[in-house]
Amino acid sequence: MKITMELQDISKNYGTVTALESVNLQVLEGEVLSLLGPNGSGKTTLLKIMAGIEKPNNGEVRFDSVKIHENNMSQMRLKTTMVFQKAVLFNTSVHENIAYGIRLRGLSKKETDERVKKALKTVRLEGYEKRQAKKLSGGEQQRVALARALALDTNMLLLDEPTANIDPKNVSIIEDVLSWVNKEKKTTMVIATHNIFQAETLATRAALLLEGRIIKVGTPQEIFMLPSKLLANYTRLENVFTGMSRISEEGTSIIDIGEGVHIEAASQKIGSVSAYVRPEDIILSVQPLISSARNTFEGRIKEITDLGSIVELRVKAGREFTVQITKRSFNEMQLNLNSKVFLAFKASAVQIV
Amino acid sequence: MHAALGNEIIEGFIRALQLIFSGDLTVVEISVRSILISGSATLLSVLWGLPVAIVLGLRRFPGRFLIKGFFNSMLGIPTVALGLILYLIFSRAGPLGFLRLLYSPAVMIIGQAILITPVIVSFITSAIESADPDIKNLAKTLGASETEASIAVLKESMNGVALAVTASFNRAIAELGVVLMIGGNIAGFTRVLTTTIALETNKGDIELSIALAIILLLIVFALTLSVNLIQRRKT
Fold this sequence. Notes:
heterodimer, A: Rossmann fold, CATH 2.40.50.100, 6-stranded mixed β-sheet, B: MetI-like fold
């Protein structure tokens, strides 16, 4: 398969801090490569070097087999673009934001307008042209940033945690769009994420990045096969628990995750495991629930984060759980910091590796 | 005594309004000259101050802090002190005396431009610095060259740039020290609003002084208000 971009022995320091160390990585044409790693592992720096907006201290970048240097950097930048973690928008209309890069490529007004319209349709924001970009919600702003990148029709798309800090509805729209773009347009994509499920859903290959070094490159399934502690500590920060698992009489797994908390999982695995529960799979109530859920805990709300239509709660129930509920439910239940709540999730909602 | 002074001010105010609304030639001539000289000075200071502000706002280099500090401290330079320095430079015996510019509108433009350059540089630098630091990188990822990316940052800082230009013009048109010392207040040639107000008040012609002071305030208010309105419409 043809190599779109190749990084050879890339190192980057900021003063005495090493952000990247001897990184070697190939991005293949048409693939979705996910850069997995915790915050501060060097994902953003690596993407910025790939986008040509950060210079490595050492090593070289090749794009379409051509070595990139100062003189041909701007040509590479026309063939690749990047979407930042926090949407960066010009303080103008949605149309002007998307049109900026198209104009730099010298397209006519008619073509520019058509491309803007098409890009907005792709991210499901039709008719938003005249709206002030910075007055949109966080999720909508990120979709505008994505539309702006898509409108350029570049060979390669770099995305830095494109779904971090936005509500689940916008997350699913962005994930749908990215899957569609890769399938229909065959655009090569590199997505930085600390969410291993996103890596599994979207990516054909994944590279695990820890403390500025690439630990492993492989299919998401191969990454899943890494020692569980390494994975759990670094790839998904919410509702990741490690502990010893034993098989119960009913044939389910009982995992001791510490602080006297045991989680029941439907699949069977013995020994040291990592368990994940998606925040949206946890049911939250103010009264104890009588249900089929095998995992029920009592706890108190420690943190409340507004994500638009969704509210994210951190609940201390022995261990800390992250739970997502709709704002309507949040208001109806009159929840506050330190409110007593009950959590419930099915054994089948627990994924163990 | 107090009542007499009060009456004088009221009478002066009424006479001033008559002067303004009758389109008195002297008043019009002095006002237009003030606007032209201070407008040209503002343009000139933008011409040389803007590139300096862009470099200070976007680049990091040794000595940058010192240059910024210099322009910041020059913000409050006393106009009379600058007027004196320029007088010595442009007077016959001075280093630029051969240009024979002293007591001409040209030297008034240069003097005011120097006076307001620190306002242009300091305000625009700080506006650029407070723009989203990722804007330059964003523009580059969308295909912009180094220069195009700098223009994008400047566009984002437009509110600050407009404020700097307005404040500069206002400081120029309202200052007295520089224009008086190097302009000489020659009737029909270098006489502007502030120098006339000072002169006429000394002479006791309070009506003309009040009329010109009202015009000066109106110019400053009208310009500031228009710039604010344009900015509001944009957002």
